[in-house]
Amino acid sequence: GPQGTFSFTSYLSGEHIICLQSNSTRFVAFAGSKLRIHLDIRVGEHFLDESVVQAKDKVNEVNIRLEHLIEQIHHVSKEQNYEREREEKFRKTSEETNSNILWWAVVQTLILISIGIWQIKSLRDFFISKKLV
């Protein structure tokens, strides 16, 4: 039909890419209608639906509050794991960058020393050939 809904749950943190494509065979400008997309993205744990909560007549207020708190605890735990993964990735990137900077400094120093030695040898050979030394 002209409308559709889908959802997914990811158990791994990271970037997710959603690609939307129309399967219409007509070009939108000539079709006389507009293509409208409504994208509603919900991130994180979602709380209990109020209609479901009201339907549970036998469940008392303490159990509802307890379920709500348990969902919040799970959400906080997942957020902490995600932040730990990001911090670990950042730390590895920083260590690799520091290592690369150290090796770049060593290479530059060796190049400068070799150019200095080459210049001294060239000047000495020049002075010897002109019989100034």
From TrEMBL:
<dbReference type="Pfam" id="PF01105">
    <property type="entry name" value="EMP24_GP25L"/>
</dbReference>
<feature type="domain" description="GOLD">
    <location>
        <begin position="1"/>
        <end position="43"/>
    </location>
</feature>
<keyword id="KW-0732">Signal</keyword>
<keyword id="KW-0256">Endoplasmic reticulum</keyword>
<protein>
    <submittedName>
        <fullName>TMD11 protein</fullName>
    </submittedName>
</protein>
<dbReference type="InterPro" id="IPR015720">
    <property type="entry name" value="Emp24-like"/>
</dbReference>
<feature type="transmembrane region" description="Helical">
    <location>
        <begin position="101"/>
        <end position="120"/>
    </location>
</feature>
<keyword id="KW-0812">Transmembrane</keyword>
<keyword id="KW-0472">Membrane</keyword>
<comment type="similarity">
    <text>Belongs to the EMP24/GP25L family.</text>
</comment>
<dbReference type="InterPro" id="IPR009038">
    <property type="entry name" value="GOLD_dom"/>
</dbReference>
<dbReference type="GO" id="GO:0005789">
    <property type="term" value="C:endoplasmic reticulum membrane"/>
</dbReference>
<keyword id="KW-1133">Transmembrane helix</keyword>
